[in-house]
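Section: Multi-chain targets

For targets with more than one molecule, the full set of components is provided together so that the structure can be written out for the assembly as a whole rather than chain by chain. Components appear in the order listed by the source. The example entry contains two components.
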Amino acid sequence: MHRFLCLSILLVGLFANTGSHATEVPPSISTADDLGPKVEQPIEFPHDRHAGPRNPADAADPSVPAKGGMEINCMYCHTGARRSAVAAIPPLQKCVGCHQTINSVRETPRIQKLFEYWDAKKPVPWKKVHDLPDFVRFNHERHIQRFVFAQNKPVQEACGYCHGDVKTMTVARRQKSLSMGWCVSCHEKDHPVDVAATKTTHGPNDCWQCHK
Amino acid sequence: MSVTNLLENWSQFRHGHPVDDKPHEEYKWAMAIDLDACTGCNACSVACYAENNIPVVGKEKFNAGQQMHWMRIERYWPEDGREFADQGAQFLPMMCQQCEAAPCETVCPAGATNHTADGVNSQIYNRCVGSRYCSANCPFKVRYFNWYDYPSTDNVWPAEMTQQLNPDVSVRSKGVMEKCTFCVQRMTAAKNTARNEGRLVRDGEVQTACQQACPTNAISFGNLVDPESKVAKQWAHQQVELSKEVQAKDAQEGGTDLRGYRIMEELRLYPSVMYLERVRESAI
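Its structure, encoded as tokens over all components, is:
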């Protein structure tokens, strides 16, 4: 009987402990579905509408308002990707440059909000979705030059290696872990040097290539 | 470097001689410092502070041996019983010598300091656990330890000074070792540009901060693999071969300028920095 009491006290203590522990767990950076956190943007930018595939039904009849995407190249807006370390968020001029002539959606809430920023001469305070730590040196240019221009891969595929299938999302959400092991898992693979190449190389293996 | 990679390619990593066994393929960064030109003005040291986000620790911590200067000017005086003994110093800029057989690398318990394919000794702050073995094993004493969390220490970077921090270089936190990197951020930028254009980095394309700031051009920096680079020419024509009694280079053109040496060469560390001995008379 004494032993049973001891055991039950021990067990109760154990569960009580785990219970209190569970409440103290800090909010996790990654979410249950292993994606990045849902970032609330000032304007819910529809990536699917801009970069998504055209609806085949629309192509047959151009007079029907398109509900599919417009297949805009990622680098039409993220112009930095092919020529600098960062891909860059487009300036407000880029949005307005097109949208001032697109009257069909001029009165929708999101576009109205866009023009509120424009009239106030204020940039849209977009939030960062893919944020690497400060000690990492990542270069978009090298990856785009290598995979899009040298290997001739489709842009959305090359960007999608790290950013996921953005053309199916509205507000972009981090799809990959962006951890060091995840980067290295691709750097270890042999990639062909260009389209016709039989020669392959893997990504750089030096610590200093990415750590600064 | 994964363990599998290490085991499978062991013969690549095991060397009897760090340079001759397996010559560098594309780049071998090296430096030559002409002590004849060096005036000891400290511009290189200041430039290094600015480029590499080095904390300014102040007199008190400096006296406690906690100085952080990656580039320091060492001073030597001839002991000849002169009246003003503190005049007429000889100067020697001293920073990490980027040894090919680096004693710091072998003792790191965390693998935080490694050799890169470019022949530079890398230091990864995230890996560093602050054991300070590397510093203890460094014969040049050019590794510096963060005894304090300098970004949050008063007067290290006063409020507006944080604006001048270099975004391409980490601001180190407490408990990690740091040292001269040969301005790796500049080398990486130049290599990226070169790769985009499908060529190798040209001579003079990368300048280290100290080299850029030197008013007498005493420092030259470049790629030893490229025989046309300034540094490679200096190494080829001016370096004394300590293992040989008779110097074949003496007979060559410009052989009279044979004054290059590497510090503590007898330790066989194969440093990447060659000093050119001072030959001019002291002003005093």
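Residues 184-196 of chain B form the longest helix (13 residues).
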